[in-house]
Design brief:
alpha+beta, Arc Repressor Mutant, subunit A, 3 strands, 12% strand, Putative transcriptional regulator, DNA-binding, WH-like_DNA-bd_sf, DNA binding, transcription regulation
Length: 113
């Protein structure tokens, strides 16, 4: 008999945070609000992330259903990332974070973060 997947515990905030936890996922999702981007475009938009970490974060976001990865069979291969419907539903949360940061963080605080 197949085992059931473990049920996630905790409140809705905890479950949401488990999907977007870490420094990079929220930034990747925010950058994808502007539309479909290729891997190297994301790397240029987030210069402090390593290639390995970006790959890891994109795989987790795809596994959680927040982004869609589209591979085009051509030479050289082309891969594009876009927000899924589920990922797009985080837009109000991401924009609220941006607005809070704009209102509450000085430019020097933002640089130190």
């Amino acid at each position: 008999m197949p085992q059931k997947a473990p049920r996630m515990q905790g409140c809705s905030v905890e479950r949401t945070m488990s999907l977007i936890d870490g420094k990079w996922k929220i930034i990747v999702l925010y950058k994808l609000l502007r539309g479909t981007l290729r891997f190297n475009e994301l790397r240029r938009l987030i210069p402090s992330i390593t290639q390995r970490m970006l790959t890891h974060q994109l795989r987790e976001l795809e596994a959680d259903g927040l982004i869609v990865r589209t591979v085009y069979a051509q030479v050289p291969p082309r891969v594009e990332y876009t927000l899924s419907t589920r990922g797009r539903s985080l837009e109000p949360v991401l924009m609220a974070m941006k607005e809070w940061g704009d209102a509450n963080l000085s430019s020097e605080e933002a640089k130190a973060a």
